[in-house]
Every structure is written in structure tokens, then in C-alpha cells.
Amino acid sequence: MAKLERANFGSKLGVILATAGSAVGLGNVWRFPYMTGQNGGAVFILIYMGCVLLLGIPCMISEFIIGRHAQANTARAYRKVGGRNPLSLIGYMSVLTGFLITGYYAVVSGWCLQYIWASLLGHLNSGDPTYFKDYFVQFSEDPVKPIFWTLLMLLATYFIIEHGVRDGIERASKLLMPTLFIILLIIVGAACLLPNASKGIEFLFKPDWNMINGDVFLGALGQSFYSMSIAMGCICTYASYFSKQTNLTTSAVQIGVIDSVVAVLAGLMIFPAAFSVGVNPDSGPSLIFITLPNVFQQAFSSLPVLGYVISLLFYLLLSLAALTSLMSLHEVSTSFFQEECHITRRSAALIVTVSCCIIGAFCSLSLGPTGQFMHVLGKSLFDIFDFVTGQIFLPVVGFLTCILIGWFVPHKLVRDEFTNYGTLRVQHFFHVYLFLVKYVCPICILFIFLHQLGLL
């Protein structure tokens, strides 16, 4: 039986970058821009910022409290904090959610790698919009290529995870996150210098108050919840590696700011380029693989070399964002298997990697003609995983976590962790936090859940 020693992050910077890397992913660079495009631009961003404060940060602090207090994997952490309360079992649901998301998220991450390769070979240089749609459809339905890139992404994640918390996750985060920011700023700079880019900037920062409606509020609520990786087990697992001196409130705010800044920069990267060529980036999930390649080609048509470089950097950016999120998702399950099965980290990471490779392969095959037998009620296995985890498991885990912390965990335990056992002068903030977790956050998450199911 392997002897387990609890690891910790080695620095405050490591804590912030690793946890921010967990939150910053395709949801920021991909989902946020098209949600902004569909919901009125600047108005959506302002409401989103408010939702991060009212929902995202309090929920993140709650997971921080559970993880750091228990110093254990997510399932065990909920048991330690919740005791015999049946709600403590939601820790297992959180681990399962993270595990399933790892499998199909790796498929989309693999698509990003394919587009890096396609950019290098010049396959994305066509000026025909139909070409990009056909290219994506043919690639995503191919029985071999998407699986190859999925496996490659999971192997890269395994290599980082099996090296441990400090030498693997923290070291990789310190390299990947600054690189991600540098690439993002380069593309933002190039996009904002395009002709008519000011129209995209205006759409992003000049509110049109007539666009406000219930759907905009609910969309912003949902985006703030998913954007910060709430209820996937990532935040709770990473918090178990925090030191007792880590200021949980400050860390949550810093991560919320980084997460929001990346999302807004992603908008600055996409909207100026899209408006420059007369395309409104509200095309939904197809945005990054069908619409944007065409946008980049048109926007930089006078400088094809620059268009080539921007396209390459963009998909490199997506891959880095996907990798930082995959690291945290993978770690949720790795930590669980390591501690519950009493095995080495390498063995646990290998179990998760192999399992997710299988899940990813089946999810990928289900999107093509050879995977028709994996369809249920007209939905592919990929879509089923996405629906069950994103629209059912995540809201349920988030809602029950707030109920557990707000109503059943002793307030002294919550206060001690929140204030670092009285060493931090944040008593007034604690009462605000507790009110939000007891009343505001559960109601917000319930609205998200009902809205996604079409009941609101």
C-alpha cells in the first residue's frame, strides 16, 4: 500500500495561476464571445460582472472552504465537512461530473490541436465560407483523426499530472498562463488595428440598455457559473493543496478578475475582427471552428502572412486554455483514485487517462456516421455527456453545495476557514458571504437550472 503525503502549492503565485487556469478555458475564449454577441454586447458584460460577484465568487469560496478544511479529494472533503448529512454524498457526484467532462472536453481540446496543424499546413487559407464548414464537418466525423488528437491532449495532461502538484500542475501553470496572456494580447492588438475595428470595440463597451431582458440575465448567470468551473470538483481539489495562510476571499476575487479579464480580452480579440469584415460573431458553438477561420482570412486578406500567424496563434491560445482546464479536471479524478484506492499518483493518473481516452474515443465516434448506434433519442453520446453534466449535474451540485455550507455546516467551521481562524479582518465580509450562499446563490442556480431545461 502506497504511503500518501499531502502536497501543497509552493507559492501564492502558484495558487492563483493554477486555480485561474482551472477557471480559464474554452468557456472564456469561445463561449463568452458568442454569448456576448447573442445577448447585446456591453449590457451582457456588465450583468455578467455582477453575476460573478453575486454567484461565482461566493460559490468559489464555498468550495475553497470545503477543500482546504478537509485537505482531501473532493468526495472525502464533502464527507469530512458534511459529516453524516446525506448532502455530503454530493462530493461523489462532483467527482463523477469532473470525470465525465474530462472525457468529452478532451475531444473539443483535440479539435484545437487539429486546427493548429491545419493552420501550419495552410489548410485554413481559403476565402470560401462554405469550405470552413465542410472542413469542420469532415474532420469531426472522421473516425480516426479526432481520436488521435484527443489521445494526444490527454497524454499531455497525464504527463503534467503525474509529476505532482508542485512539479507538475504549479510549474505548468506558471508557464502556460503567462504564455496564454501574451498570445491573447498579441491577437487583441492585431484585431484592434483593423479597419472599422472601432465598431466591434463600441459593441463590446457601449451599453444598449434596450437589450436588457430576462434571457440576458439568465444567460449571464449561467455563463458566470460555468466560466469559473463551479461544481466540477476542480476548485475544491485545488483548495485542498492550499496552505492555511492562503486568504480564500482575496484568492477568489483575484481569480474572478483574471477570469473576467480573459473573457473581455477574448471579446476584444474577436469582435473588432468580425465587425471589420461585416460578420456578427453570434453563431453559437460553431464560432471558433467555422466562423472565425473565415473572419481571420477576410480581415487580414491584404496581409496573408499576418492572417496565417494570427490564425495559428489563435488555435494555440485555445489549446493552452483547454489544457489548463483539463489539468484541473484530470486532477479531480486522479486525487480521488489515489486517496480512496491507496495507490500511487502515477497509477491513479494512468487509470484516469486510459478511462478518459475510452470515453473520448466513443464520444468522438458518436459524432460520425460510424457512431449512429451510440445515439439516444436523436442525441449523440457526445451531446448526452454535455447535456447531463452541464445542464443537470453541475447545477445540482452547485445548488446542494450552497445548501450544505449555508444551512448545515457549523457556522464556526465556515467562519474559521473564511477568516483564517480569526487572523484576517473580514468579519463584515463573512456575513455578506453567508447571506449570499444561504439565499442568493441557491436561487440563482435554481433559475439557471430551470432556464436550461426550458422551464423558465
In short:
Helices cover 75% and strands 0% of the residues. With 456 residues, the protein is mostly helical.
Core attributes:
456 residues; mainly alpha
Q: What can be said about the biggest beta sheet? A: none
Count of DSSP-assigned helices: 18
Distance between the termini: 51 Å
Assign an overall shape: globular
Mean pLDDT: 90
Rg for CA atoms: 21 Å
**What is the strand content?**
under 5%
User: Helix content range of the residues, please?
Assistant: over 70%
In the predicted model, the low-confidence regions spanning at least 5 consecutive residues are none
Question: What does the model show?
Answer:
By secondary structure, the chain is mainly alpha-helical. The chain is globular, with a radius of gyration of 21 Å. It contains 18 helices and no strands. The N and C termini lie far apart (51 Å). Helix 9 (197-205) runs antiparallel to helix 12 (248-276). The protein has helices at 12-23, 26-38, 42-70, 74-82, 90-120, 129-140, 145-161, 165-192, 197-205, 214-227, 234-239, 248-276, 287-299, 304-341, 345-365, 381-408, 411-418, 427-452.
Task: Describe the SSE topology.
Blueprint (H helix, E strand, L loop, with lengths): L11 H12 L2 H13 L3 H29 L3 H9 L7 H31 L8 H12 L4 H17 L3 H28 L4 H9 L8 H14 L6 H6 L8 H29 L10 H13 L4 H38 L3 H21 L15 H28 L2 H8 L8 H26 L4
Helix pairs in contact: 1-8, 1-12, 1-14, 2-10, 2-12, 3-4, 3-10, 3-12, 3-16, 3-17, 3-18, 4-5, 5-7, 5-14, 5-15, 5-16, 6-13, 7-14, 7-15, 8-12, 8-14, 9-12, 10-18, 12-13, 13-14, 14-15, 15-16, 16-18
